[in-house]
Amino acid sequence: METTKKTLKISFSTQKGGVGKSTMTTLLASVLHYRLGFNVLVMDCDFPQHSLNNMRERDKRTIMQNDYHKKAAMKQFQTINKKAYPIIKCKAETALEKASEYRSQSAVVPDVIFFDLPGTANTKGVLTTLKKMDFIFSPITADRLVVESTLGFTKAFLGLPKTDDGNMEQEMWLFWNQVDGREKTGLYDAYQSVIKELNLPIMETRIMDSKRFRKETDDTGSYVFRSSLLPAEPQLMKATKMDLFVEEFLKITHL
């Protein structure tokens, strides 16, 4: 029987490397799937490195080797009785087709599909896939090159001619990531005013920088932050303001 449930297509997308799109995809996917009761699918389109798929393999090994994580995984499975969200390897140009195929064959219809795309718009299939997203979230950091590159790409992307196969109701949001608490707020204010002039929506929550973003479960003995098999622990979510980000994300997407 055909289901009428709408599946949201979401991408954390940026033209600059190292600003956290794959990390954000993993953190959001894990919180939504394991803690908030949504069903998630992740399309790892970052060919050829497929960093999210490789991360899943490392996470599996870690859980088997670390008692803390093994207990957390057992407890999680007993509590939610739910499998890990699938991560499907693909190329950008076949991502939509593969996601649709999975959705039609799966017993559990995903509420959200995250597309982790390559960081360069000229990679085959990136722009056509981005045009089909319901929401695009672009992380920016207080670095002139990152801001200029992101704003330039965002304006160009939004200025592309509308096509029948695009998503007319698509929303694109910028957000501050890796915010250093010691940085002068004047810097952010200056960038904010430029973003406002360009009429681009920006999220209120600013994600604080933390060395935990660069750490996976394998080099942390007794806490969980970035993992594809377990959600980040609440106190770490709070310290980085990821908890507030998730709340705002849910409001924007109406999940």
Automatic annotation (TrEMBL):
Span of domain CobQ/CobB/MinD/ParA nucleotide binding:
10-208
**What InterPro entries has UniProt attached to this entry?**
CobQ/CobB/MinD/ParA_Nub-bd_dom, DNA_Partitioning_ATPase, P-loop_NTPase
Classification via SUPFAM superfamilies: P-loop containing nucleoside triphosphate hydrolases (SSF52540)
One family from Pfam that matches here is CbiA
Name-wise, this protein is: ParA family protein
Q: Which organism is it from?
A: Paenimyroides viscosum
